[in-house]
Amino acid sequence: MLDERKFHYSTHENNDGDVILDFPYDGKIAKCIFTGEIGQYISLYMQYESIPAEKRLKVIEECNEQNCRFEWVTFYVDADNDLMLHVDALLGLESAADEAFEMLVRMINIGKEAKNDIMKAIYA
Fold this sequence. Notes:
The protein is of the alpha+beta class and 124 residues long. The chain has 2 helices and 6 strands, in the order ββββαββα.
């Protein structure tokens, strides 16, 4: 489907046999990890922004606000002080490509919608 729509992406397989799709967008890379016996589970991750250590608490508070605002994407700050966006889903076999693409687009759009609030928490 991505080839048909002429999107740029790369794929590889990790040591566990999971298929990982890297989807570059707007200077960031969304990682789509397909797991399960037939690849029926998907986890999407996007490193949204690096957080200065002194802003960590403020950004975590903003993540909580965004988690209340959006139900499809989880915002969190990881151990490396990166603000991450995350989605988990179970895919239907007949519509897996469409469902995975929809989740990817939702994550990207929610990131765009939350951008002003997130940037205020980081840089204000």
